[in-house]
Write a structure and sequence with these properties.
five-stranded antiparallel beta sheet; 5 helices; alpha+beta; binds zinc ion; about 210 residues
Amino acid sequence: MALRPDEFYAHARTAADGERRLPLARMTGWDVSPFEPDGLRVAPMRPRVLPEPARHGEDPADCAACRDRDEGVWLDDRRRLTRIPGVGVPLVLMLYPRDHYDLADLPDELAAELGVLTTHIARHVQALPHISRAHVYRIGDGGAHLHIWFFARPEGQAQLYGSWMPVWDDLLPEYPADVAEEDTAIVADALVTSYGGRRSADGELPSA
Ligand SMILES: [Zn+2]
C-alpha cells in the first residue's frame, strides 16, 4: 500500500540533514547535468500540503485552455497545437484536446487518436533539419486541462540529452522566433498532410 502523506514525508526526512536538505541528486552527477555539484545544495524539504491547492482550470469556466479552444497553429475538430514562445530550444509545441479533459478522463476513442497524433507530431518535429529528437512530456501538476509538451532537441547538442532538457531550455538564450515560426509552419503543414485537420480555426476541414 502506498505511504500516507505523513509517512512519505517522514520517509523522505530519514535521508535529509538537520536543515531538512536531501543529498544532491544523482542526476547532478550526470555528464549532461547543467549544474556542477560544487556549491549546489538542495532546498529544504517542505511539509506536505493537504488538501493540495487547485490547479489552474480545475473549473472549465475558468480554464484558459478552454477559453482559447479555437487558437492554434494546427487544429482539427477535437485537438489543437500551439507553439510556446520565448523558449531556448529550437521548438516547443503543445497539444491540447479542445474540450476540457485531463489525461485520465479521456475517452478511449480520443486517447487512441491522441496516441496517433502524438506520434505524427514527434515524427514531423524530428524531420526538421538540425533537430535530433522530439521529447514528449505530460506532467499535469500545473493545469487541469490536458496539455502535452513537445521539446525539440538541437542536433549535436548532446548535453541536452534526457530529462535535464527543460532546465537547459530555461538556461539558454531565446531561440530566434522567426526560425521557430517557420519550423512550426513546416510541422503544421506536414500534420495536415499526414493526419488531417487544418492550419487555422477559419480553415476548411479536408474532406477525409
Ligand atoms: Zn479546459
